[in-house]
Amino acid sequence: xxxDVSISEKRLDFILHPKQGLSDLRATLRRLFTLRRVLLIxxxxxxxxxxxxxxxxxxxxxxGGVLGLLLLLEHWxxxxxxxxxxxxxxxxxxxxxxxxxxxxxxxxxxxxxxxxGFFKLWESFPPLLPDLSAYPLLAALLGALFVGTGVGLVVRxxxxxxxxxxxxxxxxxxxxxxxxxxxxxxxxxVLLLSLTYxxxxxxxxxxxxxxxxxxxxxxxxGLPARTGKAGEKTQSKSSGPSAGPARKPD
Length: 250
Prior knowledge:
Layout: H1 7-16, H2 18-32, H3 35-59, H4 65-77, H5 81-95, H6 102-123, H7 136-156, H8 164-175, H9 179-193, H10 200-221
């Protein structure tokens, strides 16, 4: 077994041998960011941000966790999720750095920036879907479809669509709760805060969105891994960088 090398020793080695360090970094990035993974993360980020802008933000249906907090702050402070998303996610990732591997954080950082970029893109257009405010149940179901599919695609590639995964893992480590309860805790707290601007009835519909999107994320993340040419399964979320947690697992 190779002896552990401290972070300071790795930094010293990088300073003394910068070419080798850069070569190793490039190799890591090439391994992590394959074309297939990048395209699927972009697809998931585009679907997620499209749903949040065209359904959640337009109808008052909210999400729990960091996604719901983005909508809450956008309503009360007028701050765009495109600006807040990298900030809030960065705080969550900083808290979880010791529990999640660096590779997970690299993929998640790319996913977070992708989400912010696509949300900014959708903001440059008027709403592309009809106003579903008069049909809150339909809005809740449609919103869950976008969120569940988008987050599921990103999580399956070994990343995170936001700071929810990192924050939930920190709570789970500190409290020794099951990860499912950690996610539920953040969702319920944000939904309760959302009562300050969303009626109780709409919060109930938001709960439908949270539960259904969680189910979709779990189903997408749990799909059988793709089989490569050599008959080996490609990595899914559970075997991806640092084996980070899937969102709301059972």
